[in-house]
Amino acid sequence: MQSQVNWALLGLVIERPSYAYELARRFERTYEGVLTLSSVSHVYTALAALKDRALVEELPGTRAGRQPKPHYRATPKGLEDYRQWLAAQLDEDLRRQRLFVLSLSTFTRDPQAALEVLALYEQACMSEAQSIPLAPRAEVCANGAPELAARLLAEDSRLALGAKLAWVQYARRELRALPDTQVLGR
Amino acid sequence: MSLLELRQVGKRYREGQLERTVLREVSVQIDSGELAIVWGLRGSGRSTLLRVAAGIEAPDDGVVLFDGRDLADRSEEVLGAGIGYCQKFLGSGSQPALEIVMMPLLAAGVPTAHARARARGALERTGAVACATRRTSALDTAETVRVALARVLAHRPRLVLVDDPIQGVDLFERDGILSLLRSLADDGIAVLASTAEATALSGADRTLALTEGELRGAPQQELATVVALRRPAGRRASA
User: Which of A6, A34, A126 lies closest to B239 in CB terms?
Assistant: First the structure.
């Protein structure tokens, strides 16, 4: 399954079984700025796709009544597949980083240009780290799961940005050490 | 006029026959109520930058201005009062934190009862009043930082300089320390901190990178543009 929306929706169903409209609202709150639904009906399509793959199932008895609201819960297969997809995201991050590094290395004959790109990258990393909100632990504990998720996300971002900033220093030193002949070959 | 200004500051150390340049043409201004954080790896010149900014060390080139006046003429006058340089070393460890915070006040001639009240108030301000009667050797790293900051704040400084405030601090305690620095700036104190960790950049008004003695920090507008170019507004995905 390729769709990020479908996987994200599966995550929400795992978090708490629910019906389409509520899932759509929760989706918007949780993934704001990261993933976008084309419309609420997008959730119905996604739930149908998840059901076809036996990743979610309807909760018995939730279609009854004048306004039936079928609730969905994750199947054991849904839970297992979601865990595997989550773990695979790390590979995706590593691939993206590798692509950036390989793209930068095309500048080996023009170290000055590479250094300029690095300076922009460094500034962007620092600005990103600066914008991550502070969350003292006591407040996190007091407010429960949403704050915990925000805290985990913030810490993941900050640690990753720290590693990138350290890498920029290393790359800068490597580029500055390149022989002058390569600079002249621009 | 900025509270602290470094203009084209250079600093070199002689090691035998060799001369090592630690700071190169560093220029930066810090205003009251601003939290500025300098990021740099070990050996980048972070600690030297803070010591020079505090007037503990004189620059070899350039000038350091505090409140518009050259710090070289009056570093002893302002260090400890107008400028608070936070040192995490709290002595032998046998004394209670309250005494550690009181000591510089007593040395400055503040009467004992008054010094005790100010020290307790500073410990409350940094969230370390529970440490008041504990020996400093029994404090964890986060508590040590809070007590060290209290020792500085007891003098009611206008500028606080902190070298590596979260170094060695438990991951869960870091944001508490950073929030404290943020709150000092919100109270109108100028805060200049250094760090080797990106974690410490959160909540800063300004971040600067120090590499091999060169300070870089693009104007905020330029940074915002860079980030806006990098960050997608939101991914649209198909089912």
Answer: A6
